[in-house]
Amino acid sequence: MIRSSLHRSWLLCKKNITVYIKQGPVLMFGLLFPFFMTLSWIIGREISLDVVFIGIVAMTSFFTATAISPVILPIETREKSLERILVSPISLKENLLGIILASTLYSLIITTIITITLMLLFSIMFNSIFLVFLLFVGIGLMAILGSLLGLLVAGYHTDNFANIMILVNLVKFPLLFMSGIFIPFNELPSHMVYLSFISPLTFLTDLLRYCVDGSNYFT
Amino acid sequence: MENISEKNLIYKENKDAIRVWNLTKKFGDLTAVENSTFTIERGIIVGILGPNGAGKTTTIRMITGVFKLENNSKIEVFGEDISKSKNKYKKNFGIIPEVSNAFSDYTVWQNMKFSGGIYGLSREIIKKRAIELLTKFNLIDKIHSKTKSLSKGLKQRLNLCIALLHDPPILIMDEPTSGLDPISVNLMREQILKLKAEGKTILITTHNMREAQIICDRILIMNKGKIIASESPDYLRKKFKSPSTIRCKVDICPPQQKEQLLNMFKFSEEGNHLLISSKNAIKDISILYQLSKENNLKISELKIEDTSLEQVFIHLIEEDSNNKEEVEKK
Prior knowledge:
The complex is a heterodimer.
Chain A: H1 2-20, H2 24-42, H3 49-65, H4 69-78, H5 81-86, H6 92-121, H7 129-154, H8 161-177, H9 190-196, H10 200-212
Helix pairs in contact in A: 1-6, 2-3, 3-6, 3-7, 3-10, 4-7, 4-8, 6-7, 7-10
Chain B: H1 4-12, E1 16-27, E2 30-41, E3 45-49, H2 56-63, E4 74-77, E5 80-81, E6 93-96, H3 108-118, H4 123-136, H5 152-164, E7 170-174, H6 182-197, E8 201-205, H7 209-215, E9 218-223, E10 226-231, H8 233-239, E11 244-252, H9 255-264, E12 266-270, E13 273-278, H10 281-295, E14 298-305, H11 309-329
Parallel strand pairs in B: 3-8, 3-9, 6-7, 7-8
Antiparallel strand pairs in B: 1-2, 1-4, 4-5, 9-10, 11-13, 11-14, 12-13
Helix pairs in contact in B: 3-4
């Protein structure tokens, strides 16, 4: 029973990755956006490679995790393929799990590639293998949380994914700016620090700081 | 993994494929389906007819589990209450929608493989059945083509292949021939009749009365969310006998005689033919014959056209709408 249920979710996950990875909004908000955000952040500023590494990894993880899950339901509603799923012996939970799995895997794969590339490129050194493990645990948790966040926003019933992307960005950008990527916590006013607790990205950024140079805020 | 032949044995024990009680669906203030009760016996083709907004698609969506059942509504599929069976009962259905809902970025083969996997078929069975079906419906050469590159007719054939892959005992078709060219329409009709011969129960919604008359064993006519008739097409045509049409071609017809005809009959013209609406065709033909003899009219063709399902449909819908208006006025 559980096995066949997981099998159906896996099939849905494979379908979601294969079909939606090439969709415009996924490429735009999952890859191009963090890339250009990073460029505009680092060009002309003297920022250490460690901080750039932390910023890029955190942004990639967050943006890729929230790229696929919000667009699947609106696109499938528009193309009527959601009805195909609804009339099949697939439960709502299996369908949602398929979306979360796809979004999480997409984020994990892209962020892992970028993290390893940057580690080699910037010669980032870790004090222990445990810290590398912790870094990937953080990326994994961010991938799951981001997928859930995207799915939560996709609960708004529409067949127009542009409406969903507006909503997603309305939630994503405040979370990004209050996360301490661009401004370190030590330089933030105290009320902003408290406000930043609502962003999951805050904790990923701090965990990455702990792993890379030990300049974390939370103990 | 499912064993298709074992599954079919279970179905043979049930006389009725689908039983529906008090089906009701409201969208805010709008009642899309109201208190509909009907049964669909195994191995027959049932057509759901009705004007736009009559509740046909909503009825189908409730049977297939897209919409939740409201209070007091109950649906049984092969004797199994669908509200208690979670999603298992959906394996009994093969759905052919009006607009293709196959994943457009998937190839034909990927769509088949996905469906087979969802219905719990093993890889070997998926491969075997997919090749069989794609060959049968002349799609085998498109097996690696993206679905979005297929024409509407080919997409509809793919929908049929997807729906039949898990060998469901019930097929539900929403306007299966809508927007297809005449060759594809004929092919689809032939396939529907073949599927019936194989023992499938088929539920069709259509606006095409001729199609319903040709292929359906029973017709459910819906109007404003209610079922107003549930009979065989022949029975409906006999029961609601509206005037027959005498179609005749009069080669020589001077204006004076035409005037005389106009006084005697209610007729219209269609090309070279006169269409005479008649309540007693035999009597009217004899009058017409007499008239032609007396006035030297040359009638080269004469044909009595029976009451069509379309006439019955219009008659029933108008009658039902008038009754409802009267009730509302009172």
